[in-house]
Design brief:
The protein has 541 residues and is mainly alpha-helical. It folds into three domains: 50 residues; 166 residues, no CATH class; 167 residues, no CATH class. The strands form three sheets. A two-stranded antiparallel sheet has the order 1-2. The chain has a two-stranded antiparallel ribbon with strand order 3-4. The chain has a two-stranded antiparallel ribbon with strand order 5-6. A hairpin with a 6-residue loop joins strand 3 and strand 4. Helix 10 packs across helix 11, helix 20 packs across helix 23 and helix 21 packs parallel to helix 23. The longest helix has 21 residues. It is globular and about 90 Å long. The N terminus is likely disordered.
């Protein structure tokens, strides 16, 4: 063979090796993290790629963020009522989660909403709540700094944490502005309460204690920054001179006469060493910038550029999408992208999500031993099973009631701390397991009841034809089908043994076609139920 022919054959062989997408199991596992759950169609779409898996995943991520957000329309008011109920909005959410094309955008928006929490517990009108959730969907493909601004000025957040109509106090008054939003934007939404290394681990002082991120003085200073905002006027463009009636359709607007123009102590982007301890102190005095809007922008910019924000936010996003216990190295790699993506931009959310989903730690389980695991929260568990089983979900579904029974009432986190804490440890272990905070014997039973309804009742019209056909052939065929549908090829020997034992225990009552079909159906139902309630399915790996 000539040298030229050899090179040509080598290039052709190399191209042939690359001209394949991920395996079925790898694609399903990726989609468990990057969508509301894999379907036969979504797995096949990834497999059809003629590019290597990493490129395939990156292309999927880019394409997903390019899709417009699925709509959640305003809710029609019941006859005689002035309050829009949440039921139709929850049904729209699940319809989008199961059927919508923007799967990744929805997952990221839902994760962001569990960091930047607003709850129907206080915002008791769905049409007042929905503009906030639409912002999450829209900003999921944007920059974190824009998200900070948009949610800060969203009237639902303004009402939920008392920033709306939070006015400056008179001179010489002993009162102070409401501190709720000032406290939570730091504690929960951006930087956390203690200083962090870039890998998400806590910084410690000389005694081994965590170093506080800020003081009460900073909270009080930010409370003054956030004064002077009211609801948008009913007539757009009108200059507000006092409190406006509630208006949840547009961002809040400033009333300069009600804004504090004095100097304020705020959290700073750059730290200064404490002369006594040497520890970094992140505070600065913010002089009046000329308007309430400019004061707000200046304070949010400092927070956005604070070094605590990337590890605090990135670790939580990893927990929501991939694993409850990311290694510090994993967090550090994602933080590096948050600080500066390929274009040198800080806080680009799609770049951060790509880093999370394509990281070596996230993808290790595609071809070897998984390094990740997280309990599927109820909303994901319900939507994932519906997608995997091709359940026909419409905008009148009642899936939210099942998720609520499992401990996650959609749009109604019980407090500003969400449904569960990112720092929650599984009792008796040192492992984090946020979703286990709402997992109990009672909610576990509801999960099992939901699976039972899927397979044994006619409520959802679950089509078991393929599984019954497999069961009619033999137990191995049935196992393989369930394994590929629900467990991306990872069914354990223990679960297989349970399926085989149950399969053998269900015997036909005769040799007629009807008797054999009934036994095949019962075997399929039992095997699917065992898989759906198993830890192997409920814990995403």
């Amino acid at each position: 063979m000539t040298k030229s022919l050899f090179l040509l054959s080598f290039v052709a062989a190399a191209a042939g090796l690359q001209a394949q997408g991920p395996s079925s199991a790898a694609a399903a596992r990726f989609l468990g993290q990057a969508s509301w759950g894999p379907t036969a169609a979504s797995v096949a779409a990834l497999q059809s790629s003629k590019l290597d898996p990493t490129t395939t995943y990156k292309n999927y991520i880019a394409a997903q963020f390019a899709i417009a957000p699925s709509a959640i329309p305003d809710v029609a008011l019941p006859t005689g009522s002035t309050v829009a109920p949440f039921g139709p909005a929850q049904a729209s959410f699940f319809n989008n989660a199961v059927n919508g094309p923007d799967q990744l955008r929805q997952r990221v928006a839902f994760a962001l909403g569990q960091i930047w929490v607003v709850s129907g517990v206080k915002i008791n009108d769905a049409n007042q709540f929905l503009p906030y959730y639409r912002l999450l969907l829209e900003d999921a493909s944007g920059n974190f700094q824009k998200l900070m601004t948009d949610i800060t000025l969203n009237p639902a957040m303004g009402h939920y944490l008392d920033m709306v109509n939070n006015d400056k106090v008179p001179l010489n008054s002993t009162n102070s502005p409401n501190e709720n939003y000032a406290r939570e934007i730091l504690q929960l939404f951006t930087v956390g309460t203690v200083q962090l290394n870039e890998d998400g681990t806590e910084k410690k002082d000389k005694t081994g204690a965590p170093i506080p991120m800020y003081s009460q003085d900073v909270i009080e200073g930010l409370a003054h920054v956030f004064t002077g905002w009211t609801y948008a006027p009913a007539k757009p463009g009108t200059v507000s001179t006092k409190h406006n009636p509630a208006n949840y359709a547009y961002p809040m607007v400033p009333v300069e006469s009600l804004h504090d123009t004095g100097g304020k102590l705020i959290l700073s982007a750059t730290g200064i060493p404490d002369p006594t301890t040497g520890e970094m102190v992140y505070t600065k005095s913010l002089l009046y910038q000329g308007s309430a809007e400019k004061d707000l922008a200046a304070a949010l910019t400092e927070i956005f550029n604070n070094p605590n924000l990337p590890p605090f936010i990135c670790k939580q996003l990893i927990q929501h999408l991939v694993t409850s216990n990311p290694t510090p190295a994993y967090v550090q790699r994602v933080v590096n992208v948050f600080k500066k993506n390929a274009k040198g931009v800080r806080g680009d959310i799609p770049s951060v999500v790509e880093a999370i989903l394509t990281d070596t730690e996230a993808r290790a389980g595609d071809t070897g031993t998984s390094l990740t695991s997280k309990l599927q929260e109820p909303v994901l568990y319900v939507a994932g099973l519906a997608r995997a089983l091709n359940i026909k979900v419409t905008d009148t579904n009642n899936l939210a009631s099942y998720a609520s029974g499992m401990g996650q009432n959609l749009f109604f986190p019980p407090t500003v701390f969400n449904y569960f804490l990112p720092s929650y440890q599984i009792p008796g272990t040192t492992q984090l397991g946020p979703e286990f905070q709402i997992y109990s014997p009672a909610t576990a039973q509801v999960r099992a009841n939901f699976a039972n309804t899927l397979f044994y009742a006619t409520t959802f019209g679950t089509d078991l034809t393929a599984y019954e056909t497999a069961a009619a052939k033999d137990v191995t065929t049935l196992e393989n089908l369930i394994d590929s549908t629900l467990l991306h090829g990872s069914m354990s020997a223990g679960l297989k043994s349970a399926v085989e034992t149950t399969y053998a225990a269900i015997t036909p009552t005769g040799t007629t076609a009807a008797a054999l079909a009934t036994a095949a159906k019962e075997r399929a139902q039992a095997a699917l139920y065992l898989a759906a309630v198993s830890p192997e399915y409920q814990v995403q790996k």
